[in-house]
Every structure is written in structure tokens, then in C-alpha cells.
Amino acid sequence: MKLYYVYIVRCSDGSFYVGVTNNVELRGNQHNEGADHQAYTFSRRPVELVYSEVFKEIVQAIAWEKQVKRWSRAKKQALIEGKWDVLHLLAECKNLTSHKNYNPDAIEP
Hints:
It is a single chain. By secondary structure, the chain is an alpha+beta fold. It has two domains: 1-70, GIY-YIG endonuclease (3-Layer(aba) Sandwich), CATH 3.40.1440; 73-109, no CATH class. The chain has four helices and three strands. Strands 2-1-3 form a three-stranded antiparallel sheet, with helices on both faces. The mean pLDDT is 90.
């Protein structure tokens, strides 16, 4: 059975790169070897693997990768550190129009 991994690497400039692969070790080596001059990580080497999650289905892995890529740096950091309570708080909608925050008296006409 083939397995797929969503991974996050921390680049030398402190930024994060999120990807999907079927071989985390090989992919990390490819990032550090700089095979693709156009790749995000090329000018940010070396990179360090800081998170990976395994999936049995490529469709699930790609969906998770796309979701995590849209996250803020703070949410990615909470995921990496396994701080689920912080991740939950960061995921909450802070808009005034959210059902949790809605106060019709606070909105100007």
C-alpha cells in the first residue's frame, strides 16, 4: 500500500513550505539539494522537516495540503507544536458579523 505525506519544512529564512509527497526523506533531500532553481525553497536552503502527517489516499493528502497552505503562520506553528487548543482559538472567526461576535448595536448604519 502506498502512503502519502503532507509535510512542512522550515526554511533558513524562517518561512514555512507545505507540500505533499510519497517519500518524506527523499523530498527533504531534494529541497536541500536545490534541484529546481524556480522552487520556493531553492534560495531558502537549508530546510528542516518540522511536521508530517500520513494519509492512505492521495485525495485526502492533497486536500489537507491545500487547507494548511492557506493557514496563517501562527496556525502552522500551532500545528507543528501540537498545540491543539491554540490552533482551535486561531481558527475561530473574529469578524464582527460572526454569530459568536454579532452585536447589532455595534454596527453603524
